[in-house]
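Why do we care about 3D structure at all? Because function follows from shape, and shape follows, mostly, from sequence. That is the central idea of this module. The next example makes it concrete: a single protein chain, its amino acid sequence, and then its structure expressed as tokens.
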Amino acid sequence: MPQSMLSPADSRRPLLAAAALREFGRGGYHRTTVADTAREAKVSPVYVFKLYRGKCSRRWGMPTPPSSVTAPC
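And the structure:
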């Protein structure tokens, strides 16, 4: 899809996913909160929940973590 055809939400998803990965790298998956990711991405936590169900969402664009690090959802 051309960049001009993306909705504002779709254009923010890669930025949020990158912010989540940075936060997971800093604090670990289990210690990172949605609020941490929102702060890193400079958006509100409500906006993150609007685009994703939460930290356990598979829509972050990342592979599913191994079962040893998967948080209960």
